[in-house]
Write a structure and sequence with these properties.
Elements (H helix, E strand, L loop, with lengths): L1 H12 L6 H17 L1 H12 L3 H27 L2 E3 L8 E9 L2 E5 L7 H12 L3 E5 L5 H14 L5 E3 L4 H8 L5 E5 L2 H14 L3 E4 L5 E4 L5 H15 L13 E5 L3 H16 L15 H12 L1 H4 L2 E3 L3 E2 L4 E2 L2 E4 L6 H4 L6 E7 L4 H7 L6 E5 L3 H10 L4 E4 L20 E2 L5 H6 L1 E9 L14 H10 L4 H8 L6
Parallel strand pairs: 3-4, 3-6, 4-5, 6-7, 8-9, 8-15, 9-14, 13-14, 15-16
Antiparallel strand pairs: 1-2, 2-18, 7-17, 10-13, 11-12
Helix pairs in contact: 2-4, 3-4, 3-6, 4-5, 9-10, 17-18
Length: 478
């Protein structure tokens, strides 16, 4: 490990990765890799998670192609310095912000989107000019093996390395000194990452997730309601079987509206996954026996069993769980206190929909908050009175596909952000560069102090160049 890290450091110190040509060559090579091995990526994702290739393209492969093209289109502009206005105290002078790479970056990815969550931060780190160690999740072994085998065939192996292994490998990596750590995973492991990073004062980005609620108001249009149901089901069951950080964790709905919504959800599940969901090719499976047992324990909780109104079938041999609806499970049960991360959807009823504001704000800040409503007053309250990594009205998960807005959490759902320009910024240091001349020297900047200097300093530190000049010339009194 030491030899590999030394080589990476030497590559970075050589200045090679700072070149815009090098950065673009690596991004283009990664794009070539995806085009050449798209079917291999589909096969790996199917082996790890039972994903249909269309889902794999929508959530991972296609997203990566889009991200790479967006990065290549904008990289030249992002690497330029930005001119910055200075106050009169620095006149005559100029300033700019120049992005520079951080150095040696560690990316530790998660198993639920094993291609996307590995390569998306890698794209940002390379675009910013860093050298990178990628540690894919061992819980998605086919995807990890694909990345370890294929990336060196296309990318600069002296600047980008893949390290496979289990928790002990991650622990060993975290003991090293890095210039940036980017971690996607659970809050529990996120705490361990932060603890390790603190030893070297390494900056960290944590993408952690949490319980993401969806508020479903009584939509007056039957068409809009059917679309809302489709988007809810797509988020919960159509993306890795609910095993994604942005998946809707539970619904909040008015009690009088709940029966109608539940019937629509049942009908929608049948349309998407058929009468026998465990036999469909459109439903991903649970990643492993450990996570399957965790979800099974949620349903076998005596306090929760009676709340199941649809689904609940399990197949331990194939690790498939039927999309399941639950109504008002106890709020102190595990399914309502832990992130579900699976195809179980609790529905919590409220006396009136406005009660959702207090319900959400009294709990840990979610990664995403989804609100299906036509009520503009409710929308404004959700924006101003709740806190979340992002808020989406009348859809779910769509924000993950948008390069022009940042993706990231707040509070326990994580911190730091990426995607598009925000990925470039996350892996860069925006260095201020100030340029001055010796032509002008301001005597009032230095002791001994007096009231005349005080008057001039007040003008000099404000963004009022004309006023400053007039005071200097004695044409205006302070």
């Amino acid at each position: 490990m030491e030899a590999e890290l030394k080589e990476l450091r030497q590559t970075f110190e050589s200045g090679k990765t700072r070149s815009a040509e090098w950065r673009k060559s690596q991004l283009k090579a990664l794009l070539d890799l995806i085009h050449a091995h798209q079917q291999d990526m589909f096969d790996a994702l199917n082996a790890d998670l039972g994903k249909h290739h269309v889902e794999s393209y929508r959530d991972e492969v296609g997203v990566l192609i889009k991200s790479l093209k967006y990065m290549l289109e904008n990289l030249d502009q992002w690497t330029k310095g930005k001119k910055i206005r200075l106050p009169p105290v620095a006149f005559p002078g100029s300033a700019e912000l120049v992005p520079e790479p951080l150095g040696l970056v560690l990316v530790i990815s998660s198993w639920n989107l094993p291609m996307g969550l590995s390569l998306e931060p890698l794209i940002g780190a390379v675009a910013a000019g860093n050298v990178v160690v990628l540690k894919p999740s061992e819980l998605a072994p086919a995807s990890s093996s694909f990345l370890a085998k294929t990336l060196p065939m296309f990318l600069d192996s002296k600047a980008i390395k893949v390290v496979e292994g289990a928790a002990d490998t991650a622990k060993e990596l975290l003991e090293k000194k890095w210039d940036k750590i980017f971690f996607t995973g659970s809050q529990q492991v996120g705490r361990l990452v932060m603890t390790a990073a603190a030893k070297h004062l390494t900056p960290v980005t944590l993408e952690l997730g949490g319980k993401c609620p969806a508020v479903v108001d009584t939509l007056t249009s039957s068409r809009d309601l059917k679309i809302a149901v489709k988007r809810i089901l797509g988020s919960k069951f159509g993306s890795c079987c609910g095993q994604v950080c942005l998946a809707i964790d539970y619904l909040l709905v008015e009690e009088k509206f709940a029966p109608e919504l539940i019937e629509l959800l049942k009908t929608g599940i049948k349309k998407m996954f058929g009468e026998k969901p465990l036999e469909t090719k459109s439903l991903a499976r649970i990643v492993n026996e450990k996570h399957f047992s965790r979800l099974k324990s949620f349903l076998s909780d005596p306090k929760v069993e009676a709340s199941v109104v649809y689904g609940g079938s399990l197949d331990e041999k194939t690790l498939y769980i039927e999309p399941t609806l639950l109504v008002n499970p106890p709020l102190d049960s595990c399914i309502m206190t832990e992130e579900v991360f699976g195809p179980l959807l609790p529905i919590i009823t409220l006396n009136k929909i406005e009660d959702c504001v207090k319900f959400i704000s009294s709990r840990p800040k979610p990664l995403a908050l989804n609100v299906f409503t036509h009520n503009e007053a409710l929308k404004q309250r959700m924006i101003s009175e709740t806190s979340s990594g992002c808020i989406t009205f009348n859809d779910a998960i769509i924000q993950y596909l948008c390069d022009t807005i940042p993706f990231g959490g707040v509070g326990q759902s994580g911190f730091g952000r990426y995607h598009g320009k925000f990925s470039f910024d996350t892996f860069s240091h925006e260095k201020p560069v100030v340029r001055r001349t010796f032509i002008v020297e301001y005597w009032f900047r230095y002791p001994p102090w007096n009231d005349d200097k005080f008057a001039l300093l007040k003008r000099a530190l404000a963004f009022d160049l004309l006023g400053f000049i007039l005071v200097m010339l004695g044409l205006r009194k302070e």
